[in-house]
Amino acid sequence: MPLKKPESDFLHELANIAEQRILSSYLKSHCIDISTKPKEGFRFDPVTNIDRETEIIIRRMISERFPEHAIMGEEFGDTGSSTYKWVIDPIDGTRPFLCGLPVWGCLVGLLENGEAVMGMMSQPYTGDRFWSDGKCSWFSGRLGTSIMKTRQDAELHQAILHTTSPESVKLYHNNKFDLLQNQVLMTRYGGECYAMAMLAAGHIDICVEYSLQPYDIVAFIPIIENAGGVITTIDGRRAENGGAIVVSANEQLHEQVLNILNS
Q1: What's the pLDDT tens digit per position in 48-90?
Q2: What is the SS3 assignment for 133-166?
Q3: Is the pLDDT of residue 91 over 70?
Q4: C or N terminus of the chain, fewer CB within 10 Å?
Q5: pTM (two decimals)
Q6: Average pLDDT, the chain
Q7: Which domain of life is it from (predicted)?
Q8: Angle value at C-alpha 53, between 47 and 59, nearest 5 degrees
């Protein structure tokens, strides 16, 4: 008997339990134990007890509700084998989390036969949630609930470009980021996962990230695509496996961006 696809309400249940754990320690440095893990090209890649404990809580709830599903998480790797795989990053943006800047988020995505079909980014401190049920992309927060759409009329010379860190840009081989930067309206740094959400919501037009893991991006693929955006690797492939990722507000803009970055 084929497995039943979960309802998007379950994403909110996961966000609720993650929120409880994370907010109990956010902005309380005495509650946070910081360590580092190896990452090529980086001297410091932080991980905290909050990351680990939140992932354990999310994994437990998934396993209780959907014991036949597989799970991939940033902190504890892969478990199980199934048509459906949950992909978790309990705190995407640990650096801003440690700095008290609320541009981090909890990411939960769902793969069906290897393709991202549902996902959510929740920000417990602001109360913002960005999610896709596989048909539409939604925002909810203090301003209410609305359907998200990317800027379909965004042109390259008017575009807002975002990348999280100059470090990742410099590490990428054959880098043409400067060529792209010189052709857009403006470039911003440091938005972490919030930048992807803002692209889906129509406020940013291009996101380029050079070193993402699956748990950094799977949740965003259905959010971006069902809002009208395009998300691929820098060489035009599906983005589920991570790598160098390009996200654009519309197809024409995406083609232009890829041409520049691969020139």
Answers
A1: 999 999 999 999 999 999 999 999 999 999 999 999 999 999 9
A2: CCCCEEEEECCEEEECCCCCCCCHHHCEEEECCH
A3: yes
A4: N
A5: 0.95
A6: 95
A7: Bacteria
A8: 115
**Which tokens in the block code for residue 163?**
């990348």
Question: By three-state DSSP, how is residue 191 classified?
Answer: coil
Set out the domains of the chain in order of their start, with CATH numbers.
Answer: 9-147 (3.30.540.10), 156-261 (3.40.190.80)
Token pair of 169, please?
């840009």
Q: Is 128 annotated as a binding residue?
A: no
Measured between alpha carbons, how far apart are the two ends of the chain, in Å? 49
Is there a binding annotation on residue 147?
no
Q: How confident is the model at residue 170 (pLDDT cuts 50, 70, 90)?
A: confident
Angle between helical axes of 9-23 and 49-65 (0-180°, round to 10):
150
Q: 259: which DSSP letter?
A: H
74 in a labelled binding site: yes
**DSSP assignment of 21-59:** HHHTTTT-GGG--EEE--BTTBS--EEEHHHHHHHHHHH
* pLDDT value for 40: 65
Tokens matching residue 138: 């939604």
Asked if residues 17 and 96 have their Cβ atoms less than 8 Å apart, the reply is no
Alpha carbon distance 140, 192 (integer Å): 19
92 appears as a binding residue in the annotation: yes
89 is annotated as contributing to ligand binding: yes
Among 46, 142, 57, 130, residue whose Cα is nearest residue 96: 46
Read off the pLDDT of each residue in 14-23 and give the average, rounded to a whole number: 97
Q: Residue 163 burial by CB count (10 A; 0-12/13-18/19+): exposed, middle or buried?
A: buried
